Automatic annotation (TrEMBL):
Protein's name according to its UniProt entry: G-protein coupled receptors family 1 profile domain-containing protein
SUPFAM superfamilies documented for this protein: Family A G protein-coupled receptor-like
Source organism of the structure: Patiria miniata (Bat star)
Membrane topology: Multi-pass membrane protein
Domain G-protein coupled receptors family 1 profile: 85-355
């Protein structure tokens, strides 16, 4: 009976405890009493350490298939809306000369980034629907995970580029704006919004920090959370991509807001009215000419409207990103990570809706596109004129 008790206790001991107990005599009852107390105290302390360091949700796994199926369905619907909407944005810019502006180069870049996200996240839906893990080759999941990460990161860098563009347009002189936003410099800015996220995403993985692929914990194509340096990759990428662009965005729009409100108060105080011309019915060429002639304080009413509505796009992105960022910083909120990650995907579908509902130029062109009235579209591009002539 003594031997059985010793065997039972030995099987429940940690390696360190085994070493201690192996030196005790199996025939000594006092040794067993002392060992038993030591074992109980040791196990209690170990349990307290685990509870303190790991938290109640450290072992969380997204195994509820009903939740996964609901999430996958929502992702698929969001991707359909986002894909159609962003294709419409690209077509609108291609068909209307009015939309072919320097600022809209970045809007097009944002639409392309959103299209990349909409094209890669359906594989996340496949992972969520699957009951047997990732059903395709692992390399497919890793590539789609990389595309999603690059697309989301490119979106925020493009939003920062748009905010800087509006800041220079409204706050600086026309000559300064033209000198900064030349075709070559715009191309370099756009290239940076893609190359930088790609390097941040790929270089750490290349050097063995983290691993892109299937997450058995969350049942998604993001990164392999079982990898020992998975958390380092997440925190490093987040720190290098998100904080600075968000600060740039809010500083630029805050300065624009203060400049516009200050200008309006100054003009009204002088009794001259607000010097804002309404260019809603003028052509893009006329609007640009007027911008070049006027000093920076005499910005057009339409430019202010466009800036305001592009700020809505920024607010939508922050609203979609913030829940995920908060859950990453709070370890006990791990069960919410899959759902907050899904909200980020919504942003790819939200932007075209904002353009269609608020942006004055896109709204007009979308209306003609949805009614198939291409022959009456104002200021048709050269591409559209060629199509008409056939």
């Amino acid at each position: 009976m003594t031997t059985d008790k010793f065997a039972t206790m030995k099987s429940t001991m940690t390696p360190n405890s085994e070493t201690v107990f192996s030196t005790m005599s199996a025939n000594s009852s006092d040794s067993f009493v002392t060992s038993d107390k030591f074992l109980n105290e040791n196990m209690t302390i170990a349990a307290m350490i685990v509870a303190t360091t790991e938290g109640p949700h450290q072992g969380f796994r997204f195994d509820d298939y009903t939740q996964r199926a609901i999430m996958a369905t929502i992702i698929c619907l969001s991707n359909v809306v986002g894909f159609v909407g962003n294709v419409m944005v690209l077509l609108a810019v291609n068909l209307s000369r009015k939309l072919q502006t320097r600022t809209n180069v970045f809007v097009v870049n944002l639409a392309v980034a959103d299209l990349l996200t909409c094209s890669s996240t359906p594989f996340t839906a496949v992972a969520l629907f699957s009951k047997v893990g990732w059903p395709m080759p692992e390399i497919v999941c890793a590539i789609m995970s990389g595309f999603t990460s690059i697309g989301v990161a490119c979106s925020i860098l493009t939003l920062a580029s748009i905010s800087i563009n509006r800041y220079v347009l409204i706050m600086k002189t026309p000559s300064t704006y033209r000198s900064i936003y030349t075709p070559k410099k715009i191309a370099a800015m756009v290239a940076f919004t893609w190359v930088y996220p790609a390097l941040i995403c790929c270089l750490p993985v290349f050097f063995g920090v983290g691993k892109l692929g299937y997450s058995d914990k969350y049942k998604t194509c993001t990164q392999d959370t079982s990898h020992e340096t998975s958390a380092i990759l997440s925190h490093t990428a987040s720190a290098l991509i998100y904080p600075i662009p968000l600060i740039v965005v809010f500083v630029c729009y805050f300065k624009i807001y203060r400049h516009i409100t200050g200008h309006m108060k100054k003009m009204m105080g002088k009794g001259k009215g607000v010097e804002m011309t309404d260019t809603s019915n003028s052509s893009n060429v006329a609007s640009t000419t007027q911008l070049h002639k006027n000093p920076p304080a005499s910005f057009s009413k339409r430019q202010v409207e466009i800036t305001k509505n592009l700020f809505y796009v920024v607010c939508a992105f922050v609203a979609c990103l913030s829940p995920f960022a908060i859950t990453l910083m709070i370890p006990p909120s791990q069960p919410a990570i899959p759902w907050t990650g899904m909200i980020i995907i919504f942003n790819s579908a939200v932007n075209p809706i904002i353009y269609g509902a608020k942006h004055p130029h896109f709204k007009e062109v979308f209306r003609h596109m949805l009614r198939c009235r291409y022959h009456t579209m104002p200021e048709p591009s050269g591409c559209l004129r060629k199509i008409r002539s056939r």
